[in-house]
Amino acid sequence: MGIDVKMLGMIFIINLSYITLNTIRFMLTMKGYRNIAPLVSIVEITVYVLGLNMVLSRLDNPWNLAAYALGYGIGVGIGIRLEEFLALGYIMVTAIIPVKEESSMANDLRDEGYGVTVSFGFGREGERMILEILSSRKNERSLYKLIKEIEPSAFVISHEPKYISGGFWTKKVKKRRDHLSLKQ
Prior knowledge:
Blueprint: H1 5-30, H2 36-56, H3 62-86, E1 90-98, H4 105-111, E2 115-123, E3 126-136, H5 140-150, E4 155-159, H6 169-183
Antiparallel strand pairs: 1-3, 1-4, 2-3
């Protein structure tokens, strides 16, 4: 039982490709890209069957299984990085800050193009300003940085909204979705 380096490389590349495609397809499905996600899944399952066939037809060689597993693991890592790079969709960030008369945080964020809604609450240490900030995921890191620059003590949490309707962002979101639909 010799080691067929070419076969190991093919198994590794095929499974790495499968898992990367799997991550992209899952991301597209979760973000509502209804036209492109099924197309990616066709390529994904074809690659999967090829890779699995190569391993199952040669189970007598444990190196084949090792190459398959290694491709899987590295494919997950690449898929995660690719998802972060593409950063599809939007995030809703809540920043809770102490109330200060001189605070212009909401307007500073608006001037940078973010949608901001302000409300007030009361926390353990007194009155708080609660800023709900809508941003594209591509701007997520710069938004966090800007919040910390303006108010280092800000408490920040975020989540991805499933549905967006109304407000000044609606027209921007609709234009982007219509543009993407035309591409698909």
